UniProtKB/TrEMBL annotation:
It comes from Candidatus Allofournierella pullicola. It comes from the Bacteria. Coiled coil: none annotated. The keyword rRNA-binding does not apply. Keywords: Membrane, Transmembrane, Transmembrane helix. This is Uncharacterized protein. The chain crosses the membrane at residues 79-104, 111-136, 156-175, 187-208, 214-233, 240-264, 292-318, 330-349, 361-379, 388-407.
Length: 666
């Protein structure tokens, strides 16, 4: 009875903190246009309008945010409702992961419950930053805020999958009245039916997210094989029977889940996964073009957290080999394995800068938990009262947090709200130009938005291509459809992020922007975007010559020459090939390379970089000033690759554009 009461208090305390955070977020429904708030809401509103993921629209980050948020968003299908739901559920998921992580490390349920209800309030209140100073406090505050808030793309929801499986394992042990210090969970997989269930869980998880879904499925499969070979070996016949059961469950779980998600068109999910995977490495270029292995070994921050994680996994493997791995150690190792595998996937996909939240955050939580375990060990002489004190502290803290949340909820209706209330958003906003004045400029006519944000919600429409953010239009087929939806749609208006906020989009997506610059004129600026109005062809009657000069094995310059005095943007067609100069270079790069280009584009910010696949063809922009303009292309990693430009030609000239030049709305 007492334990049930403690769990109820814990759940209410976590919900209370989550409620306070969510209410604070929707006091004003402003957003960063290039961030993830509408990346989440547009998925929810599309599904609630009857659209199907991967078939009717691109769902870049997977189904995890949908599954954990959609029931709550359905109760209030507005942008404010989405903000509330995502902030509310994010902290619940984070607190649950802290509970499981600390519990597995310390073995103390009261300590885990106390930590999980305290940590978010400790960080969000500013106490952590105050106690640990601007260096450590600021670092940890920023790190944990990226976990208990939705951030760009609800990473906490995506990385929750391995913790969900751990929770299911602990529930199973509880139902069996077994201790996690034994190996009953591992030994249960000697039964083929349990192997099939594990396979279903892993296969279903593939659609959870594009990072932790794949990483978790890989880790489950790897650990299953290791357990069968090292602990449960009963001969080849038994091994292959269990493997067949696991594989059948895996395939069945993945297929059934994909069919349910896509309306029985699982090929749409597979095509999206393949297209995204083929473009991510060069498109996002998180490794700076460095050979992958060199990037890993020359990134101290990555190694600082990855090596201890890898060492722990090796220790677990040795324990398994010797037959001494307990279920608690297995579950801990599984989470560490999944986080490390997802980190590796980030690096391999070119998004190497995304490793820090999961890897660093849970590393520090493990350090703090181990320190707490040491304190618990030192207090063993008062063991009779230790758990009682912890349970009392956890209960008192839970009651305090529930009371504070009650005060927040009571004050919220009379809280000061910035801006004006927009019924279409369900909340207040200060974006007068973007959400009130811009629709007046367009007279309600459809607008093609490169980043779909509040305008679509206000006007009750959807981005027509199905890719709400242009950075999600990845893969050759998807991009062709995206370009066609813009060029063939006859749009009278287009909206882009202001290029001083996201200038890299212009070069990285010149296959779209070249049509925009040629057929639209900029006519209005909002707080975060530019509005473009369709006009007649803006191509300029300029003749220009193009020459390509090799500067090194991996580097070229392309020069555009025009009559003196001419200033314009040259639209160039380029075809190229690159390859590795040695097997050693291919090994260090793990077979992955790309081509970079640096171009002068804006007079008030000349250099903008973009990245292209290792070989292929594309259009690139070059700003020409007084008859001369030069672009630089190189293959990466330049120490191991060779680049050849096979064709470079001038397509057309368009007006030059500056970042900060303002044009009057008409």
């Amino acid at each position: 009875m007492l334990r049930t009461l403690e769990w109820c208090l814990w759940a209410l305390a976590v919900a209370a903190v989550s409620l306070s955070l969510a209410l604070g977020r929707i006091e004003t429904c402003d957003y960063v246009s290039v961030n993830g708030d509408f990346q989440s809401y547009n998925v929810f509103r599309r599904i609630l309008a009857g659209q199907t993921p991967y078939v009717d629209f691109a769902n870049y980050i997977g189904m995890a945010p949908v599954w954990v948020n959609l029931p709550l968003v359905a109760l209030n299908n507005t942008f404010a409702g989405s903000l509330f739901a995502t902030n509310f559920t994010s902290n619940i998921l984070f607190s649950t992961t802290v509970l499981l992580w600390v519990w597995l490390i310390t073995g103390s349920r009261p300590a885990a419950m106390l930590t999980s209800v305290f940590l978010t309030k400790f960080v969000s209140s500013g106490l952590m930053a105050t106690l640990f100073g601007p260096a450590l406090g600021g670092y940890w505050t920023g790190l944990f805020q990226n976990l208990y808030t939705p951030g760009n793309s609800m990473r906490i929801a995506r990385l929750f999958l391995p913790f969900l499986l751990v929770g299911l394992g602990l529930v199973w042990l509880r139902l069996k009245k077994a201790s996690a210090e034994q190996a009953l969970l591992q030994e249960s997989f000697a039964a083929p039916v349990n192997c099939a269930v594990l396979g279903v869980l892993a296969g279903t998880g593939l659609l959870w997210s594009s990072d932790f879904g794949l990483a978790t499925a890989f880790c489950v499969a790897a650990l299953f094989l290791l357990e069968q070979a090292l602990r449960l070996w009963a001969g080849p016949r038994a091994f292959f029977a269990r493997l067949a059961a696991f594989a059948a469950g895996f395939a069945g779980g993945a297929l059934c889940c994909a069919c349910l998600v896509t309306g029985f068109r699982p090929g749409a999910w597979l095509a999206s996964l393949a297209g995204t995977g083929s473009w991510q490495y060069f498109y996002f270029n998180g490794t700076g073009g460095k050979a992958l292995l060199l990037y890993v070994f020359s990134t101290p921050r990555l190694l600082l957290f990855a090596l201890p994680c890898a060492a722990f996994l090796i220790w677990c493997l040795v324990r398994l080999w010797k037959g001494g791995l307990t279920d608690r150690q297995l579950l801990l190792g599984f989470v560490a394995f999944a986080i490390l595998a997802a980190t590796g996937a980030y690096v391999l996909s070119g998004s190497g800068y995304n490793f820090k939240e999961a890897l660093e955050g849970y590393f520090w939580l493990a350090v703090f938990a181990l320190a707490g375990r040491g304190l618990l060990w030192l207090s063993r002489r008062v063991a009779r009262r230790r758990d009682l004190l912890l349970r009392a502290a956890a209960g008192a803290l839970a009651l305090a947090l529930i009371a504070l949340a009650g005060l927040d909820a009571a004050r919220w209706p009379s809280a000061v709200h910035n801006g004006q209330y927009l019924e279409a958003l369900g909340g207040y906003t200060t974006y007068q130009k973007a959400l009130v004045e811009l629709p007046e400029v367009t007279s309600g006519e459809p607008v093609f938005s490169v980043y779909a944000t509040g305008l679509e919600a206000v006007e009750g429409v959807f981005q027509p291509s199905g890719c709400d953010y242009i950075i999600h239009a990845l893969g050759d087929e998807t991009r062709e459809k995206y370009v066609a939806s813009f060029t063939d749609g006859g749009w009278a208006w287009a909206q882009t992020p202001r290029m001083d906020l996201e200038n890299w989009l212009t070069v990285q997506n010149w296959d779209v922007y070249r049509h925009l610059w040629a057929g639209y004129e900029r006519c209005y600026a909002t707080e975060y975007s530019w509005l473009w109005r369709a006009c007649s062809d803006r191509s300029l009657p300029v003749e220009a010559q193009v020459s390509a000069q090799r500067q090194s094995d991996s580097g070229w310059t392309i020069t555009v020459s025009a009559p003196a005095g001419e200033s314009f943007t040259a639209d160039l067609y380029v075809r190229w090939e690159s390859g590795f100069t040695s097997p050693w270079g291919a090994f260090l790069s793990l077979g992955r390379s790309m081509v970079g280009c640096a171009v002068p584009l804006f007079g008030d910010m000349p250099g903008v970089a973009g990245y292209l696949p290792a070989s292929g063809e594309a259009y690139i922009p070059v700003r020409v000033e007084n008859g001369q303009g030069t672009a630089t292309l190189w293959s990466a990693d330049g120490a191991f690759t060779e680049l050849t430009i096979t064709e470079a030609r001038f397509e057309r000239a368009m007006p030059a554009l500056d970042l900060y030049e303002q044009e009057a709305a008409q």
